[in-house]
Amino acid sequence: MSEPLPSVLTVNRLNKAYNVPVLKDFDFDLRKGEVHALIGSNGAGKSTFAKILTGLTPRNSGEILFQGTPFKPSNKQEASAAGINMVLQELNVIPTLTVGENLFLHTLPHHKGIIARKELHQLSKQALTRLGLNELNPDQLADTLGVGQQQLVEIAGALAQNSSILILDEPTAALTGPEIERLFENIQRLREEGVAMIYISHRMDEIFRIADRVTVLRDGHRINTHDTDGVSMDTLVHEMAGDELAERHPHLEIQHRGPGLTVKNLTAKPAVNDVSFSVQKGEILGIAGLIGAGRTETLRAIFGADPKQSGTVFIGDETTPLSISSPTDAVKAGIGLIPEDRKQDGLLLNKSVSLNTTLSTLERFSKSGLIDHRKEFDATVATTDKLELKYDSVEQSVDELSGGNQQKVVMGRWLLCDSPVLLFDEPTRGIDVAAKETIYNALDQLAREGKTLVVVSSDLLELMSISHRILVMSAGKIAGEFTPDDWSQEAITAAAFSEYISTHERAQ
Amino acid sequence: MNYKRWFTDYAPMILIWLGLVLLFGILSDNFVTSRTLATLASQVPPLAIIACGMTLVLIIAGIDLSVGSTLALASAMLGVALVDWEFPLILAIVVAVITGGLTGLFNGAISVYLRIPSFIVTLGTLEIARGLAYLATDSQTKYLGVALEPMARPLPGLGVPISFLIAVVVIIIGQFILTRTTYGRYLIAIGTNESAVRLAGVPTARKKISVFAITGLLTGLAAVFFTSRLGSADPNAGVGMELSAIAAVVIGGTSLMGGRGSIINSFIGVLIIATLGAGLAQIGASEPSKRVVTGLVIVLAVTIDALRGGFFQKLKMRFKTGTL
């Protein structure tokens, strides 16, 4: 590449916030016929950027120039018509339709409403040939294809739209070695045709192989843009991790009081692969890792929410493993889970604060099956006060509360339960700063009471400020263990990427 | 339960019902008479008792389409027990109730353990139970004579039969269980978000099965009263009753999506449907036009309920936040 090619897309000072800012004054440019990789840790803002480009979510402010003119798609169809298409990480192939119907779902050729089969067959054949998928019959049903082939069909569909910009979000997640090779050949061909591509991936080796340039995002900011030829992996990891120092939370002197939770050789396919660790009483163990590294699945398997293939779990000094096959067993054994998606898995949204708080301990506030509403009321008030929960009355429905207060309701449930082991999955996601602080204090308090805490979080600084020790998961395995003496954002980030470094190893 | 709450929960439904009674009282000279009311009181118990069970089923986000056929099967077994087996009355009643209970247990166990939507399972049972009712009675209506008659006869001094009193007791106990016991609380919780309830460590399978079993038992009891009014066990009994029951429950504001419902309001829903039927008949409406009006009332009730959840809720929120 001697002469820089002309820009097809220029982004100036793009801002987007949901509850908290996700993109902050983000600048970006994309040249005709280049593969531009976008990398960053969880929550850096990569997917949000892709969503704004494809009209799936509106921006708050900022300018996007597409081929020199301002571009503001209000939905996916508009972006697609303009020539910007995205291949999503998740499969969107409809299994009950044919390959051809999937390819041209929104633009099916027809005569007066009747599908023009021959034309569809020809168009599909062309689209498939372009991707080198000659062996696929456009008339076969999509669910007769393997996952990798489905992914390729989806890419072919996006290409068939005559894209000038194609966004690929983790396109190789479901592909095997040879399929990845084929995808790369096609990316190469598209590049020669002048299609500009934004390539979002965790997999550094792929980025070094196919990207021309790479932009690093951190906390919604563009940190740097490099030519891939002139940059080292270390530099990129360093830029993704940042050198911000975690502010240590007070009260962090470790108060070991013997074994709390021990997990041995836990495997829950496909996400968790032979995971072992132990946590002391009074200890907060942080688990770091990328999204999809198996952290949530590990907690859920311990808790009995998902089936596991193997592995044993012990509590305290017990030498006999617990037999946990359902959350009920786990709760009886003294384990509590604060789930990642509190609206879906934690709360009964249109029900009262008190109903939500006493859900796991209702028997305690009842006599021969009759609820003692007075006792329930008192317990709810006592617990929620302890967490500084703000609400009008215990009868208020929880969907009227802020995210932070909702999370406190879920935590209150387990405080009432007095479980010695608590598993927290992203306890502060989408929560404002002040509420975060009270949640950190509550975690602290629980640890000092001698409870055993495991906290999964995608916010590294948060983990470093609250944990006594951090485990790093990568591709379903434990990829590192750090103590405050030897941890740094860079080291933890490197460990989180470590199992994703080689695509070829994974393919074997 | 404070008075304010009682007022907002039940008063609108009661007012609507009283409004209907008043309307027909004005339109027809002899609607508000003890005779009409006595007829109503002897008609509603079977549907009211079934609606009690149906409310619980809808609250856990399930549905039971088999209650009409189950009623016929339980009625048939009552007839068989009395006539063919010559059981004493009380034992025959037990046979009918247990028949209903087992049918419900079947529905619940299949739907919960095999994870088949209750809609599908009970649609199957709708056919199975009806077929069994024909087999049990040899497709003949069994005349039972006077054995059951006392249950349908108005009690001296009260003007209502014993069946009505029992239905009221069932409704009150049902509402009490729903609002005051841990069991009722869990049912509401399961219907709201079963996944969250499971992750809170509360076992759900048996509770869900028991709801179907209870509905079956209640349908068996309803069958006894239904049979007592006719004086015979008819395998054609209760056709379409599942839809009447669902309609009454939905008019009472219970959500088909689960998590919300009131047995007392379901009972008033039954009263509204029965009053509408009797009133329209009195003013000389034809059978087809009765059906049109009843259908419109169901749609209207659900629409109002949807607005209450959406529009009125928004209004309330805007009022609260001061943006109104």
What does this structure look like?
The complex is a heterodimer of chains A (508) and B (324). Chain A is an alpha/beta fold. Chain A has two domains: 7-93 and 145-241, 3-Layer(aba) Sandwich (Rossmann fold), CATH 3.40.50; 259-507, Rossmann fold. Chain A is built from 18 helices and 23 strands. In chain A, strands 6-9-10-3-11-12 form a six-stranded mixed beta sheet, sandwiched between helices. In chain A, strands 17-20-21-15-22-23 form a six-stranded mixed beta sheet, sandwiched between helices. A four-stranded antiparallel beta sheet of chain A has the order 2-1-4-5, covered by helices on one side. In chain A, helix 8 crosses helix 17 (489-498) and helix 13 (373-386) packs across helix 14 (403-417). Residues 503-508 of chain A have low confidence and may be disordered. With 324 residues, chain B is mainly alpha-helical. Chain B has two domains: 45-284, no CATH class; 291-324. Chain B contains 14 helices and two strands, in the order αααααβαααααβαααα. Chain B has helices at 3-27, 34-59, 67-84, 89-113, 118-137, 149-152, 162-180, 182-192, 194-199, 205-230, 241-251, 263-282, 287-309, 311-321; strands at 142-143, 232-233. In chain B, strands 1-2 form a two-stranded antiparallel sheet. Chain B is globular and about 60 Å long. The model of chain B has no long low-confidence stretch (mean pLDDT 90). Classes of the chains: A alpha/beta (508), B mainly alpha (324). Chain A binds chain B through residues 303, 305, 326-328, 330-332, 336-337, 339, 344-351, 355, 359-360, 362-363, 366, 369-371, 400, 413, 417, and chain B through 180-183, 185-186, 188-189, 192-193, 195-203, 259-260, 317.
